[in-house]
Design a protein that fits this description.
alpha+beta, HU Protein, Chain A, three-stranded antiparallel β-sheet, two-stranded antiparallel ribbon, 5 strands, elongated, Hist_DNA-bd
């Protein structure tokens, strides 16, 4: 698993930045994606993929323990679609 600290360390090493500077860059990227998602805007990172907000409708489900029918509220979720370059890199 790669963490944000590991990503920041790699950026710092490859671009001659301090770890604090690279952590700020990584945090800014994630903050921009979060802000865009919260406002319902799609975020696209060329060569990596797209983050898109999708609406899930209200639905009924069953409690497996009691069998009672419950309603699950409508919600929004963040979906990721990988770019072709990322798919190709994964399937080499």
């Amino acid at each position: 698993m790669t963490t944000t600290n590991e990503i920041a360390d790699k950026i710092a090493t490859e671009h001659s930045l301090t770890k604090a500077q690279s952590k700020a860059i990584v945090a800014a990227v994630f903050a921009a994606i979060t802000t865009a998602a919260a406002s319902g805007v799609e975020s696209s990172i060329p060569g990596f993929g797209k983050f898109k907000v999708k609406a899930t409708p209200e639905r009924e489900a069953r409690n497996p323990g009691t069998g009672a029918v419950i309603k699950i509220a409508a919600a929004r979720k963040l979906a990721f679609t990988p770019a072709k370059a990322l798919k190709d890199a994964l399937n080499k």
